[in-house]
Design a protein that fits this description.
alpha+beta, five-stranded antiparallel β-sheet, 10 helices
Length: 476
């Protein structure tokens, strides 16, 4: 009696062990299939040339599930968060277009897939002839007697629906449903990765298209900016005038395609010479246009375009007075402040009128960098602002000052692109360095002088990007 009990117990343990072995084999089979699915997906992703990664992954997932369950055919639907079919693998792969959409609609609405979507539970049909959940399609070219449908879940959300089919009744059982469900849960990971990969590829295509459009637009813009740059350079003097008793030199360097810096020199009556150096706030197209307008207004209002009795600063019977030409600064400010104050732009400038015979200079400094008067022993004087910047305020007052240049003296004007130039360590060049250089090393011609400043300035900047336009003007 005792021996018999041990035998029964042994048989129970053996049966339990066989079940565990069967379960382990089933799990291993599912695991191996999943690894194979991921291997296929990774190889496709690495190739970066497979345009149908999602469809191929879905088909491979369906094929593996069919192998695990012994199914002959199958279909797979992927759903969005609203339950709408976004991608599908159908048993009748030969159909397409409108017929395909109609078929999917019928299956999701009335078929076993529709039942599982509504009930959120797996569906097992042992015989399609006796189960009302099965929908036999008209003109169906294959026979189905048993089927099972399982949910494809990801993050506890319905991700898709998979249906497996066989031509014999009772081919699938509850174990088949369990195997298919486990396979579906595993394959959801690979399919989700494929969907993400598909989105990534679509994003790459969109980015590439956008890149091409941007490059095309950028080329057109650069072409236009080059034209603008050429036109702007034409606003600056092509050649500085030859002036008796004076040597003149200039230097101009863009930071961008277009500049807000400018300089000008033009003849006035009685052999006087007008000269300007200025800097418009900001950079780019707006500053370039503002610069062109300011330069033109100064020329017009100063009378540089007028001759004889058409001069705007006096009648032909009146003696030319440099201060009348300098009224151009106030007139220009009034126009800018009245017509363009909403743009919020302004311009700093130094406008001088020199008598090259006597060396007498009348000038206005409208909020510009101090202009330096340099003698043989270095800096003699700084010509600081005599009024505010031009543009923001109507009725601004600009005082006219006078300076007498001696033989050998040099008048040196520059924009803040010089003093505010930055090195690779983001340090500023600063006025103190400029003044020390002038006081230490100044001697020679105006060309030599500007070359000395330029050499020291660009040695300081090094490989750092140029932060502002650089303009210099020297009159000796």
């Amino acid at each position: 009696m005792k021996k018999c009990n041990r035998t029964a117990k042994d048989e129970m343990e053996l049966e339990q062990l066989q079940k565990e072995i069967t379960a382990l084999r089933r799990e291993k089979k599912i695991h191996d299939a999943q690894n194979k699915l991921f291997e296929i997906f990774i190889n496709m992703a690495r190739s970066s040339k497979e345009e149908r990664v999602l469809n191929v992954t879905m088909q491979n997932a369906l094929d593996i599930a069919a192998q695990l369950s012994g199914a002959q055919k199958g279909s797979l639907f992927l759903l969005d968060k609203n339950g709408v079919v976004t991608d599908s693998i159908l048993t009748q792969d030969q159909i397409s277009g409108e017929k395909r959409s109609t078929l999917i609609g019928k299956v999701i609405d009335k078929g076993l897939a529709g039942w599982i979507k509504k009930n959120l539970a797996s569906g097992l049909v042992t015989d399609t002839k006796t189960d009302a959940r099965w929908l036999t399609l008209p003109g169906q070219s294959y026979s189905v007697r048993s089927a099972l449908t399982v949910l494809v879940l990801r993050h506890n959300t319905l991700f898709g629906i998979m249906t497996l089919m066989h031509s014999l009744p009772s081919h699938f059982d509850r174990i088949s449903v369990d195997i298919a469900q486990q396979a579906a849960n595993q394959m959801a990971i690979a399919i989700e990765n494929a969907k993400l990969y598909k989105k990534l590829e679509q994003s790459k295509i969109s980015l590439e298209n956008a890149k091409q459009s941007i490059e095309k637009y950028s080329k057109a813009l650069n072409d236009e900016l080059k034209k603008g740059k050429k036109i702007q350079k034409d606003f600056l003097p092509h050649f500085l005038p030859k002036v008796k008793n004076c040597a003149i030199s200039s230097y101009f360097h863009f930071a961008l395609q277009l500049s807000g810096d400018f300089y000008d020199m033009f003849e006035l009556p009685d052999n006087h010479i007008g000269f300007v150096i200025g800097d418009v706030s900001g950079k780019g197209v707006g500053s370039a246009l503002f610069m062109a307008l300011t330069r033109s207004l100064l020329r017009i209002f100063s009378g540089s375009f007028a001759t004889g009795d058409s001069m705007n600063f006096g009648s032909i019977n009146e003696e030319f007075l440099p201060k009348d030409a300098l009224k151009a600064v106030s007139l220009t400010n009034e126009y800018l402040a009245k017509e363009h104050c909403e743009e919020g732009m302004f311009v700093t400038l130094f406008f001088g009128v020199i008598d090259p015979i006597t060396g007498k200079v009348l000038y206005i400094n409208g909020g510009h960098e101090p202009v330096l008067i340099i003698g043989k022993n270095g800096i003699k004087q700084s010509l600081k602002a005599t009024g505010p910047v031009l543009g923001p305020i109507q009725g601004a007052i600009y005082e006219i000052e006078t300076i007498q240049l001696e033989t050998g003296d040099m008048l040196f004007g520059f924009t803040d692109g010089v003093t505010e130039a930055r090195s690779e360590t983001r340090d500023f060049y600063m006025r103190s360095r400029l003044k020390n250089l002038i006081n230490k090393d100044f001697y020679g011609s105006v060309e030599t002088f500007l070359e000395m400043i330029k050499t020291d300035l660009f040695a300081f900047i090094g490989d750092a990007p140029q932060s502002d336009d650089i303009t210099m003007l020297a009159v000796k």
